[in-house]
């Protein structure tokens, strides 16, 4: 049986499809409570910055990174993923994680992979497979604040920075292509039309 063969039944017919009520907390404020500022995110991201079309300078990269960060954190689902990592970190510091001792949490044992899974999920949620590749790059090199954060937070923040960085590079290249006046398709079309011309 295929999933498409299963008839769906909406058992939550009255469930709201829009956000309601006043938002009382912002994920940026919660990160700041943990000692992580937006500038720290930017600085960490730019430690692994590589010039690309559309972000040829660090100043342009910072501007694009901040834009992509704002865009990403507009999504409450992403904010809740980040928040889940913050809560796990807090519980770990207090020795209240299930089925793991405080000392095991502090040692960031290699067989505990929930932190990496969350980091990968965050990066992939933001920017797909490209985001996951960026997460791995940041996770391996641990630039900036990543080297100072706890077992969950280094991966949560690495995932956030990796996903946002991947989006930054992708959008910058797309913007550079469109501002140059030609996309790849247009350039290919021009090349094909030239090859159709016969010498006379």
Automatic annotation (TrEMBL):
<dbReference type="InterPro" id="IPR036681">
    <property type="entry name" value="PgpA-like_sf"/>
</dbReference>
<dbReference type="InterPro" id="IPR007686">
    <property type="entry name" value="YutG/PgpA"/>
</dbReference>
<feature type="region of interest" description="Disordered">
    <location>
        <begin position="177"/>
        <end position="200"/>
    </location>
</feature>
<dbReference type="InterPro" id="IPR017577">
    <property type="entry name" value="Ribazole_CobZ"/>
</dbReference>
<protein>
    <submittedName>
        <fullName>Alpha-ribazole phosphatase CobZ</fullName>
    </submittedName>
</protein>
<dbReference type="Pfam" id="PF04608">
    <property type="entry name" value="PgpA"/>
</dbReference>
<dbReference type="GO" id="GO:0006629">
    <property type="term" value="P:lipid metabolic process"/>
</dbReference>
<dbReference type="GO" id="GO:0008962">
    <property type="term" value="F:phosphatidylglycerophosphatase activity"/>
</dbReference>
<feature type="domain" description="YutG/PgpA">
    <location>
        <begin position="99"/>
        <end position="165"/>
    </location>
</feature>
